[in-house]
Design a protein that fits this description.
Blueprint lengths: L2 E5 L2 E8 L2 E10 L3 H19 L4 H14 L9 H7 L6 H18 L12 H14 L2 H20 L13 H4 L15 H10 L2 H12 L5 H5 L6 E2 L4 E5 L6 E5 L2 H9 L10 H9 L1 H14 L8 E3 L5 E3 L5 H12 L5 H8 L15 H20 L1
Antiparallel strand pairs: 1-2, 2-3, 4-5, 5-6, 7-8
Helix pairs in contact: 1-2, 4-6, 5-6, 8-9, 8-16, 12-13, 14-15, 15-16
């Protein structure tokens, strides 16, 4: 049976397993009889879970019940409880990514997750990030890191923690120099854009053109563009992106106005109701459909597909390439500054002082008209 040891001002659990002496921190302070009883309950549960004699969920429940009976439930909070109950205030897909990151992190911690939240150390968090980088791409590991870090930032703001252990290191400092930070997407050539806009099915032509002429906006934002986002009186399209919540305001190009007018009486809240229905049902399906069209028109070829360490196949040419195309065209021209490009596309500024830069609709119109003219002239050659 597990027994308690005193180290500093904390109780530690100790037991023997297969002849090995094991000591684990309970995270419970040495204060009085209540704390000692709870520490013993936690130690017993940790030993049982580690030896596989009881399910960890049942062990955790016994610790919670003991804390409540001792009137100490508010003094925990347990690592698992905090991360499981925390919900990021963002879009559904981000909450889904958060739940996935939490599940992976708690599995990594194992029995340690029944400790108090303040027992999380930078070493634990760092080891988790290193392990993730060995399993998946750097981008995925960075996303896990960012979501967990954000959750603990809130704990600091709420006064639950004094410091965030994920802030003790940078994910970039952990990645070996030979690991790519992200898979580089390729822009479409002018000829490829012309092929997409003339040879793809009409519904896809309209979706692609709408993305192109609003600054390379993402597939989900275009598929789910609602009529309430379109202000014909002010001649603007205005919405918040699904990925970051950033507000996008762009002028309506005459060609886009033609598309809008053609869908005016579709009886739906969405500009593209069929695309919205497909995307909401399964957002990956729209990406697969677009990728299939790229392959059919020889725009996406085998050499454009990269296999990650996790075995996932990623195309360097996809719908997101429209965004790269817009940035490439604008930055390749001497007519447009980096600020104007960021203003059109909707990227966050690189420096904090650039937050004071406000781009006019007239400037955006010049950039978007330039993109339209380049694509149109490229198709006429």
């Amino acid at each position: 049976m597990a027994f308690l040891k005193k180290r500093g001002n904390k109780w530690y659990a100790a037991w023997y397993h297969n002849g090995k002496y094991i000591v684990k921190a309970t995270g419970i302070s040495i204060k009085g009889k209540k704390e000692e009883k709870l520490a013993q309950q936690a130690a017993t549960a940790m030993e049982a879970a580690a030896k596989g004699n009881i399910q960890l969920s049942r062990a955790l429940e016994s610790v919670r019940a003991a804390a409540e009976s001792l009137g100490m439930s508010e003094s925990l909070p347990l690592i698992e409880d905090y991360f499981t109950n925390f919900s990021p205030a963002s879009r559904d897909s981000n909450r889904s990514n958060y739940r996935r990151a939490v599940s992976l992190f708690l599995d990594f911690l194992g029995p340690m997750k029944i400790q108090k939240l303040d027992r999380l150390t930078p070493a634990m968090c760092r080891d988790f990030c290193v392990k993730r980088m060995q399993e998946v791409s750097f981008g995925t590991a960075k996303n896990n890191y960012a979501l967990l870090k954000a959750a603990l930032n809130q704990a600091v703001r709420d006064g639950i923690l004094d410091r965030n252990p994920f802030c003790a290191f940078s994910i970039f400092s952990l990645a070996p120099s030979n690991i790519p930070r992200a898979i580089k997407r390729l822009p479409f050539s002018i000829e490829e854009m012309h092929t997409i806009l003339t040879e793809f099915p009409v519904d896809w032509r309209e979706i692609v053109f709408t993305s192109l002429i609003t600054g390379g906006q993402r597939l989900g934002d275009i598929c789910c563009l609602e009529w309430k986002h379109i202000n014909l009186d002010q001649n603007i399209v205005m919405f918040n992106t699904q990925k970051t919540g950033k507000e996008i305001v762009v002028p309506i190009h005459p060609q886009l106005r033609n598309i809008i007018d053609a869908h005016a009486n579709n009886g739906s809240e969405y500009l593209f109701p069929d695309a919205a229905r497909k995307y909401i049902r399964w957002k990956g399906g729209m990406s697969v459909e677009f990728t299939t069209l790229l392959k059919a028109h020889n725009i996406l070829r085998p050499e454009h597909v990269i296999t990650t360490k996790a075995g996932r196949k990623i195309s360097v040419k996809s719908f997101h390439s429209i965004r790269h195309t817009v940035v490439t065209l604008l930055r390749s021209s001497t007519l447009f500054t980096a600020d104007i490009t960021r203003g059109i596309v909707g990227h966050d500024s690189e420096e904090i002082e650039r937050q004071y830069f406000t781009m006019s609709l007239d400037s955006k119109s010049v950039g978007l008209n330039y993109i339209f003219d380049v694509i149109q002239k490229g198709g006429e050659q």
